[in-house]
UniProtKB/TrEMBL annotation:
InterPro entries: DUF4440, NTF2-like_dom_sf
Signal peptide residues on this chain, from the entry's feature table: 1-18
Protein's UniProt name: Ketosteroid isomerase-like protein
Lineage: Bacteria, Pseudomonadati, Pseudomonadota, Betaproteobacteria, Burkholderiales
Domain DUF4440, residue spans: 28-133
SUPFAM superfamilies: NTF2-like (SSF54427)
Domain of life: Bacteria
One Pfam family recorded for the sequence: DUF4440
Length: 143
């Protein structure tokens, strides 16, 4: 009888612990909000998710800083359509998290339509209790 009560208490505790969002779900929600901010060209929200020492390695191997990356996203030359992420995955290693997936991005650049398909990895680091993106790398995929 005591064993049954202990197992029941453990099960209830497990359910209670499972009800708050998991870290992976929190990071997914943060990444989704960042994607929406990018499409909306919300500079403050884009920058709030990024560490000051952020770097991006683009599809051509170029390195972008936080400033150049954000400036490119909010440029009037760029119009992004809403997009979704496929094959999304979160892997956490202590205070570092790797978020990866595939996306097809469409829009216009300098008035010309574009359609890109790529795989990416975003590296988040927990600093001062907050998760921020420190690095992005993208690799083009065949269309």
């Amino acid at each position: 009888m005591r064993r049954a009560l202990l197992l029941t208490a453990m099960a209830v505790a497990g359910i209670a612990q499972a009800s708050p969002p998991t870290l992976a779900a929190q990071l997914k929600a943060q990444a989704d909000a960042w994607d929406r901010a990018i499409v909306a060209k919300d500079r403050a929200a884009i920058e709030a998710n990024m560490a000051d020492d952020f770097r991006q390695i683009d599809a051509r191997g170029n390195v972008e800083t936080k400033a150049s990356f954000v400036d490119g996203l909010v440029s009037p030359d760029l119009v992004l359509h809403p997009y979704t992420v496929e094959d999304f995955e979160v892997r956490v290693y202590g205070d570092t998290a790797l978020l990866s997936g595939r996306t097809r991005m469409t829009g216009r650049y300098q008035g010309q339509p574009f359609d890109t398909h790529y795989r990416y990895i975003d590296v988040y680091v927990k600093r001062g209790g907050a998760w921020q993106i420190v690095s992005v790398q993208i690799s083009p995929l065949a269309r």
